Amino acid sequence: MTSTTVSQPLRTIREVWESLPEGTRAQIIENQLTMSPPLSNIHQKTLNRINVSIFLHVEKHLLGEVRIAPFGVYLDDENVFEPDIVFVTNDNLHRIKEDGLHGSPDMVIEILSSSNARVDENQKKKVYERHGVKEYWIVDPKTKEVNGFFLEDDRYGSPVKFDGKISSIVLDFDFEF
């Protein structure tokens, strides 16, 4: 007689996400699984320019840690993001675990792609605000238009707008790309 093992079917979006092969570009946004295509050349180029500037500044002044996608940010069971750039202050380094960041980063930068612009500008912005991300920057790599949102009284105010520049309060640093 042979025995058969029956496994439980996956029941939650989080369980489905966790079962995906490593390297699959996917996020959970408001309990919806969202797949992402590979990044475009201009997206990668902009990501590299911004990341190098931030990384060198953070390392020089020992401000905390910078991570780039793919790096999991576990905000809650219904929101697991892979932002393009994440900054975590020294006070919050305990949130970084082997599998990603558990809790809110201090700053997030998202670089728009044609496939993700509406999600970054609306859904993810609301989730970042709700979870207390102090600064949220949205960068259009084609036009270099930048919209920055700063958390005040648990809400993001009107965006500050720049062209080819980010002026971070959290980092006390202005840089161009």
UniProtKB/TrEMBL annotation:
It comes from the Bacteria. Residues 20-159 form the Putative restriction endonuclease domain. One of its GO terms (molecular function) is endonuclease activity. Gene3D superfamilies: tt1808, chain A. Keywords: Endonuclease, Hydrolase, Nuclease. This is Uma2 family endonuclease. Pfam families: Uma2. InterPro entries: Nuclease_put_TT1808, Restrct_endonuc-II-like, Uma2. PANTHER family: SLL0198 PROTEIN-RELATED (PTHR34107), SLL1222 PROTEIN (PTHR34107:SF4). Coiled coil: none annotated. The keyword Transport does not apply.
